[in-house]
Amino acid sequence: MLFMTACSFDKTVEAEKSDSAISEKDSAVLKPVYRTDPVEFDTDDPAIWINKTDPSQSLVIGTDKDENGALYVYDLKGKQIVSKTVKSLQRPNNVDVAYGLILNGKPVDIAVTSERMTQNLRIFSLPDMKAIDGGGIPVYEAETGEMFRDLMGVSLHTDKSGKIYVIAGRKSGPTDGTYLWQYLLEDNGKGLVKASLVRKFGQYSGKKEIESIAVDNELGYIYYSDEQFGIRKYYADPAKGNEELAIFGQGEYLDDNEGISIYKDSDSTGYILVSDQAANQFHIYSREGQSNAHDHVRITTVKTSTNNSDGSETVSVPLNEDFKHGLFVAMSDDKTFQYYRWEDIAGTKLRIRNKQ
Predict the structure, then answer these.
(1) H helical segments located in the chain
(2) What is the rounded CA–CA span in Å between residue 232 and residue 207?
(3) Torsion of CA 45, 50, 51, 53, to 10 degrees
(4) pTM for this predicted structure
(5) Separation CA 97–CA 258 (nearest Å)
(6) What 3 state SS string does 236-259 have?
(7) Beta-strand relationship, 327-332 and 193-201
(8) What burial class does residue 254 get, using C-beta atoms within 10 Å of its C-beta: 0-12 exposed, 13-18 middle, 19+ buried?
(9) Which of these, 194, 199, 200, 227, lies nearest to 213 by C-alpha position?
(10) Which site from 92, 175, 238, 242 is most exposed, i.e. has the minimal number of CB atoms within 10 Å?
(11) H helices within 18-160, ranges in order?
(12) If you ran DSSP here, which 8-state letter would residue 346 be given?
């Protein structure tokens, strides 16, 4: 049996592991379809770019987190595409992609990564991975403390009008509801990207840090992991204000709640997957909520072959014969990223998009 069911959380984890109400049962560990070629230093976070003309030529982009780090680019079998890999980045942490940023009057797909040691956003065009940021875009410039400018997490939001925003997280920050900063990405008039600050938002518990951020474009929500506290939810549209909509996942993690990804089996339904990093498993929650839109109940838990998984990403688009119903990619601390079929994650408990 591949999955932990909702009714099986009746066995308490040993007290020395956690005082919280985490439960478990014996469950087979899922094996990936592919493991990527290893990076040189330290994997952290993946993103998936869908080639809309030919999905079988889609790409996985992953960070190699080091002062002499890189963005590695892989095909759908996990083979590194050396010609697209970007070297000499100063500790890239997280990466995300968006489609159709208008530059020089033409739509350009982009990959955005956080370059932690320079406190810059780095932005590259897809699929060629050419820099289009003029060497880097600084963030958190108004902050005085070095730790408060220590850029880590990034996630991209595309609104219904086509505007693209980046939401930036950091190693540490204030607990007054301004931990995350949101920037609008635009053409600077010379065919390069500029970023304009549009809001500061987001509560922080002060327990550890906020790195993993995910955006649901269709429903218009931002989720982020306040590590060792819970998953927080906000509106993605700055005009809707900074009210916190939900906190969930509390007391369900062995240690850190980490990478977040969203599987969409329709425009309004699906699942939110969050890494239970120290337990080598992913908790899966209802995307649409249960009693209301902000009631994100844990549905199941899936054990994977990843070790200490931080970042992850998933798509529900059919890509090729290996990934007919979507792809789930998760980082593992052996310097690789692992590729899973969605139907293997889903088993008999979760829905599958485009299932015949």
Answers:
(1) 342-346
(2) 14
(3) 180
(4) 0.91
(5) 19
(6) CCHHHCCCCCEEECCCCCCCCEEE
(7) unpaired
(8) middle
(9) 227
(10) 175
(11) none
(12) H
Count of Cβ atoms closer than 10 Å to residue 43 Cβ: 25
pLDDT given for residue 348 in this prediction: 86
Q: How many CB atoms lie within 10 A of CB 14?
A: 6
What radius of gyration, in Å, describes the C-alpha atoms of the chain? 19
Chain segment 73-115, per-residue pLDDT in tens: 999 999 999 999 999 999 999 999 999 999 999 999 999 999 9
Task: Give per-residue pLDDT as tens, 44-83.
Answer: 999 999 999 999 999 999 999 999 999 999 999 999 999 9
| Per-residue model confidence as pLDDT tens digits over 250-277 | 999 999 999 999 999 999 999 999 999 9
Q: How confident is the model at residue 137 (pLDDT cuts 50, 70, 90)?
A: very high
Cα(48)–Cα(223) distance, rounded to whole angstroms?
18
Of all residues in the chain, the percent with pLDDT exceeding 90 is 89
Map tokens 């290893």 to a residue.
38
Contact 270, 284 (CB under 8 A): no
Res. 230 pLDDT band, cuts 50 70 90? very high
Dmax over CA atoms of the chain, in Å, equals 60
The DSSP element (H or E) to which 341 belongs, if any, is strand 336-341
Q: Contact, 43 vs 95, CB < 8 A? A: no
Instruction: State the DSSP code for 56.
Output: G
Peptide bond preceding 174 in cis form (omega within 30 of 0): no
Q: Could you give the 3-state DSSP secondary structure of residue 196?
A: strand
Contact between residue 125 and residue 140 where contact means Cβ atoms under 8 Å apart: no
Q: Catalogue all structural domains in the chain, each as residue range(s) with its CATH number.
A: 6-346 (2.120.10.30)
Residue 50's contacts (CB-CB under 8 Å, 6 or more residues apart) are: 58, 315, 317, 319
